[in-house]
Design brief:
With about 325 residues, this protein is α/β, with parallel strands linked by helices. It is built from 14 helices and nine strands. Strand 1 (about 30-35), helix 2 (about 45-60) and strand 2 form a beta-alpha-beta unit. The longest helix is centred in the last third of the chain and has 35 residues, at about 255-290.
Length: about 325
Amino acid sequence: MKGFARTTLALAVSLAVTVGAQAAEFDDMDPITLRLAHVVNEQDGFHIAAEKFETLVEERTQGKVDIELYPNATLGDERTLLEAMQIGAVDMGVITNGPVANFVEEMAVFELPFLFPSPEAAYEVLDGPIGQELLDKLAEVNLKGLAYAERGFRNLTNSERAVTSPSDIDGLRIRVMENPVYVDTFRELGANAIPMAWTEALTAMQQGTIDGQENPVNVIHSFKLYETQAHMTLSRHTYAPAIFVMGMPAWSQLPEAAQAVLAESAQEAAEHERRVNAEMQADQLAALREAGMQIVEEPDIAAFQEAVAPVYEQYGEQFGDYLPRIQEALK
């Protein structure tokens, strides 16, 4: 028993020394404030991730690194934020994967249709060697990728009928993002794919000039799409990551100890957001059902995957070896 007590005491002393050493790393550091921006509101998962990140960083650096949050696009849209990070005008942000892919094309590989069968499969790839390699490529454009948060899986809604297979989509007028992969995906599924801005889509749904759209559950819920869309299919046709990203000018001025804290805290904050999103989604789906939306929970995913095969043939090669490597990792 005495041996156990000595071992326990030794472990406690060792832990105290480690924690003390970590705290001491910041004793001589000059305080710094980092501005973290995003484009959504304070109820969104992006802000939940940012708040968690802020708490972790400030605690772990003994307050020497102060994170200031700028939600609601107060510092600009996502492309503007990324460009500002490159020149040091904004320090960091939580940014949707699509705009980041405009700077490093290979990042768009994650948004190919029906690539990921589940959130867990996406996390395994994103948090593993392939995801890290792509984060590291951001350094080529003067950005520093820290971790993958998420926007989540996108799902189909429409005003006409239940959709369980591609044949049910045939002829439906579906609004999609102004992105060629999304346009071609829905054309292959038989839809009349109509790219348009989101603000225009809301009006078009109300007027009946389009039949449907596709978005994550939280967007479908927050914009009350049940008022115009009677049907929803949990198609999960595209998984959209989001990225904790810094500008290299801000990253380079930090000491190594602070860099390590930021990277570690970004990963923990991203994982926290994923858990919260999952919890929120269950409540949001229940609210949509209560509002009268008919939800198809288990569509014929294999049939959808077969229908979009030409999209892979068209776009796969532009991502180098990343697509086959992801497909191998998912086996």
